[in-house]
Amino acid sequence: EVLWNDTQGWGKPKICPWHNFSLHPFNTTLHYAFEGFEGMKAYRDAKGKIRTFRPEMNAKRLSNTSKELCFPTFEPTEFVKCLDTLLKLDEKWVPEEPASLYMRPTIVSMTNKLGLHIPNETMLYVVCSPSGSYFKGGIKPVKLKIETEGVRAWPGGSGNAKFGANYTQGIKYVKAAFAQGYQQVIWLNGKSITEAGASNIFFHWINSKGQKELVTPKLDGTILPGITRDSVLQLGREEKGFITTERVITVDELLQADKEKRIIELFMCGTAVVIAPIGSIVYNGKEIAPHHANGPLSEKIRGKLEDIMFGRVEHPFSHKVNQYLTLYSSF
Q1: What is the four-CA torsion angle of 258, 186, 184, 161, rounded to 10 degrees?
Q2: At CA 63, angle to CA 57 and CA 65, rounded to 5?
């Protein structure tokens, strides 16, 4: 954890035993949701070495979130060094495959003053917990509902930042979808598809031009720039037999593709799920289903991602904690 204030800047980072925080009742995080976070994992490879997956991307996204909150930014390269040092000390908590160590970097206001003000004190901290496989008993396709009333984000808002408040926005619609037997909702911006729950979404289909395409909604300020999303795009562009694109995808285009039986497979992606196949989508009572509920492309991409994460193959996305670690005297 490390503290910042507007007179002295960042303090000295420290690693300490797990402990509770004591917050003043006027703390502005409690009243005005001044909070942002990241989600990332550490993996143990077959040789027992610890790896993380593109941690510099998490560090840069945390900086973007901090800017949106009018918080100070922590230099991304130095932040990755802090994570490496933490993982070296807590190495025994990183489980063997297929489990991992979940890491939650969080930044909050430590300003104790009622009234909406730019915080003059903040705290950045990281907590960790061993995490099992997201899918208990094997990967199962999910059923989603397109949400037509509630919204997660809107143009000019904060949908592209990882605010805690973004995850409670529209939560009552998610709860209603759960009660109706769905596993998540698909969020819209007008008629355009944006995200699937707290994940990004991909469509593998034959597009209206007759091209086989892997496509995800383009970043428009309402969509979180997922690190798994970016990785899927890069891996997809290395594949042959289809094009990989980012563009606006409307509900009407999805309905037309379903009517013409052009949808090959659908999947969600994110840090928690990695890749989650979508078995069906329901829009105003109409069910939309791909040819493959758990398709070969999503399985292939998931396999490639996990090969990188667990160090089965060497790849620039894999950060070797043990190899690059330097213990700094400042800790």
Answers
A1: 150
A2: 105
pTM: 0.95
Provide the token pair at 50.
Answer: 């610890």
Q: What percent of the chain has pLDDT over 90?
A: 95
Angle of helix 55-68 relative to helix 227-238, nearest 10 degrees, comes to 130
Q: What is the pLDDT of residues 186-225, one digit of tens each?
A: 999 999 999 999 999 999 999 999 999 999 999 999 999 9
3-state SS, the chain, equals CEEEECCCEECCCCCCCCCCCCCCCCEHHHHHCCEEECCEEEEECCCCCEEEECHHHHHHHHHHHHHHCCCCCCCHHHHHHHHHHHHHHCHHHCCCCCCEEEEEEEEEECCECCCCCCCCEEEEEEEEEEECCCCCCCCCCEEEEECCCCCCCCCCCCCCCCECHHHHCCHHHHHHHHHCCCCEEEEEECCEEEEECCEEEEEEEECCCCCEEEEEECCCCCCCCCHHHHHHHHHHHHCCCCEEEEECCEHHHHHHHHHCCCEEEEEEEECCCEEEEEEEEEECCEEECCCCCCCHHHHHHHHHHHHHHCCCCCCCCEEEHHHHCCCCCCC
pLDDT (tens digit per residue) in 6-36? 999 999 999 999 999 999 999 999 999 999 9
